[in-house]
Amino acid sequence: MKTFKILIIGIFIITNILMCNEQNTLDILKNTKLKETYYEPTSKGGYLGLSVGILFVASFTTAGILYTMPEKVTKWNKKEIKYIFRNYKKKVSKGPVVDDDELWLNYIAHPYFGALYYIQPRMAGFDWSESVFFSFLASTFFWEYGLEGFAETPSWQDIIITPAIGSLLGEGFYRIIRYIQLNDNKLFDQWWLGKGIIWILDPIGSLIYSTGLGELFGIYNKNKKIQFISTPILPNGKGGVQLSFIINF
Q1: Which neighbouring-strand residues pair with 228?
Q2: Domain residues of the chain, as ranges?
Q3: Which of 138-168 are b and which e, b meaning 16 or more Cβ less than 10 Å from the residue's Cβ?
Q4: How does strand 224-230 pair with strand 233-234?
Q5: Could you tell me the pTM of the whole model?
Q6: Residue 245, phi then psi, degrees to nearest 5
Q7: What is the pLDDT of residues 41-90, one digit of tens each?
């Protein structure tokens, strides 16, 4: 498909070289650009599957980082964790409980991760209710009764706050990302600021659609178009008239 697009552009450029002078040809090259609105994957299931895979790897990495942190911060007993399966059964059977984690963990870190869970199906093209359900499943069964269950008793705060506040936060993230993408990936007319905010709000999605990873797995942006503007000048005795062709793919 990419080769076909390049071929079409080449044909139009050559045609205009024959029809126009050098300056007009330079104008054509300048006006040939990639036009992109917001990101919409060609496969909802494929996108979500890829993001879940990245999320799986990222969660194991996060668990490893938490394990290296002081016990007073995570409340993880590292001696018990050595006996992971016995400790898992013990911890899960006790929960859920009201934990005494640091405020930043319960009310900043967990809602942020809840938002990351929420935004994966949302960016894939699912609606908000399906995204809330996904956030609940991921935070409760994948994290609380999954990875974290090997080290800590499941927490009522995390089961409720992570998907609830996280989903509200995630919908806000989603709308901000859409706003920036529809504004040519700029925020306050700054491209670096717009892309930087998108990476913060959705690092997993950014990895998929900003690095070309999604395309490696056959997932493309439906709204990505090549816009070619051809401007041959036809003599009319008054300086010429501009004839424009716009071709979108």
Answers
A1: 247
A2: 2-37+223-247, 44-216
A3: bbbebbbbbbbbbbbbbbebbbebbbbbbbe
A4: unpaired
A5: 0.69
A6: -125, 130
A7: 999 999 999 999 998 888 778 777 877 777 677 666 666 666 677 777 77
